[in-house]
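Hey forum,

I'm writing up a methods section and want to include a predicted complex as supplementary material. The small molecule is NAP. I've pasted the protein sequence and the SMILES. Can someone with a working setup run it? I'll credit the forum in the acknowledgements.
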Amino acid sequence: MVGLGTWLIPNDDAKRVCTDALNLGYRHIDTAQIYQNEEGVGNALVSSSIAREDIFITTKMWPGMYGDETFQTFSGAIEACEQSLKLLQLNEIDLYLIHNPFATNSRVELWEAMVELKKQGKVKHIGVSNYNVKHIKEIEDAQIEMPVANQIEIHPYHMIPDALEVYMNNHNILPIAYSTLAPLPNWREGSRWNSKPEAMKNDPSIPFLEVAEKYNVTVAQLLLKWSIQLGYPVLPKSVNYERLKENLDLNFTITGEDMSHLSVSNKAQSLAWQEKFDPLDVD
Ligand SMILES: NC(=O)c1ccc[n+]([C@@H]2O[C@H](COP(=O)([O-])OP(=O)(O)OC[C@H]3O[C@@H](n4cnc5c(N)ncnc54)[C@H](OP(=O)(O)O)[C@@H]3O)[C@@H](O)[C@H]2O)c1
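Reply by user p_vandermeer:
Happy to help. Structure tokens for the complex are below, copy them as they are.
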């Protein structure tokens, strides 16, 4: 339920951070072609004494940027996976995802490549990321094998749209949460990928700190546990050893009443993908 996120971890740091995480007990690592750190993740895997079958590796194929003219093709997707396998120094990826629905005119073709990769034994499970109902329905309508997971931004300022949650539930597609820590004031501090509006940094409408203090935990632990209690695995990223440890230490239970206090806001605003741009809204 708690995997290590690696977006914004430079390739040179990835071996150290992943090694620390594995030694602390993390068994799921989330990376992506676009993060450019698969090699560092792979170096940690190779030097670890933990059995390969006890570790779960997720990586993602980048389909192209929204608004671009050219997108990834069937053969390009196969090659992207082969390159990820090489960098990760693996024979098989546990979960391979299409990173987003941006390839507006080749989404089904790319999904066919995912199915082919599974058939070839290069990946164990296939899924999508940032897909809304419309995008997954294209796969259903083409009567192809369905994704097993959809990795999406989930935190109190960006809940799963109800229709998507129902649809995924009905089709046994697991929501995996990312950017769960986005409400933290120091989230992505110092990075250009933090477009959080000032007002949200000290938003009094959700009493994160008060609720966390009740359980004697940090706000980070509260946010992660909130997601897990809703049934969504989390992927907290940290380069800091103490935080890696803290994010795994979630042995408490949030009451139903506090769970609803934290879920009151449904502003559906993507923070991970910059203001006014949410991949779930892509045509
Ligand atoms: N599929 C997608 O499109 C997509 C998009 C975004 C993210 N993801 C995946 O999900 C992962 C998590 O998302 P994210 O990286 O956006 O954000 P996140 O994990 O929710 O938050 C990371 C930020 O929180 C800080 N932090 C971590 N633990 C903390 C703690 N205990 N106390 C205080 N601060 C803490 C980190 O700083 P330090 O590192 O300095 O500790 C960093 O600034 C990514 O790394 C990536 O693997 C996927």
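Some notes you might quote in the supplement: The radius of gyration is 18 Å. Residues 177 and 234 are 5 Å apart (CA to CA).
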